[in-house]
Amino acid sequence: MSDLPTYVHITEVGPREGFQFEPPHIATADKIRLIDALSQTGVPEIECASFVNPKVVPQMADVFQIADGITRHAGVTYGCMWLNEKGFHQALSSGLYTPALTSTSASDTFLMRNNNRTPDAQIAGQIALRQAYSDAGLGSGPIYLFTAFGCNYEGAVSVEQAMLRAADLVAVCEDAGTPPTCITLCDTVGAADPAGVRALVAAVRTRWPDYPVALHLHDTRGLGIANAMAGLELGVARFDASVGGLGGCPFAGNRSAAGNIATEELALLCDRLGIETGIDIPALIKAAELAETIVAHPLSSKLAHAGLFTPKP
Prior knowledge:
This protein is an alpha/beta fold. It contains twelve helices and ten strands.
């Protein structure tokens, strides 16, 4: 346990990944209401929306209204995601935080489903994006490797395959003179287990010891918090999580219980381990209850339903 971090940065991705997984009927005002509630929980970063093709992901058609409507609080970063250069320029004009993110998938089939690109075309697109980032005055940013642990279309992803695709992204950043700020390993379809998390994190750290590792975990098969624990024991100090367990990937090939790990449950785990997050867990539970009301169906978070345990004196 000696490698446990003293502080963990949790990025809340529910308003983006959560709502894009729901049917496209969630009112813009409700999306804003949840972001405003999350702003008061102590989470340091909130992903508000994705700049993607609204014909493909109609849930994100109101992204500019969201960006304009949220109440911004000091100390909270309001971010977003995109998949291509057009999406980046839209994001840049929105006023949301635009880190110079570079991404691909360890699974070639998922990459075609999610981005409609081959691996070579994806890297060419990322090189062009990296140039657009530089032209906009942005320096280094994070790497995202989707389906790093497995894919519903291709099955298990080996460490070697994940490392090959990660190396492509690292090269894009290093060749531009902007080495990555971190390498985010994404369990996009909930395929990971603790042993797999340990193996891939160790491989990435061995190859690139100067680049911090982050984890984006899903709880599709019930191992999400166990995988987070494996990461914490290795000293991983950056995680993505989703309030109430909202979310999933609409192109993952599995609609069943595909939510992300619940932010409040990850925060509780950190709290019980003596790791600081800066998060007000009761406030986050209330935000999870709000999220469940908005989507009008039960969410996967056990903590949001059971409440905090308060032992009797």
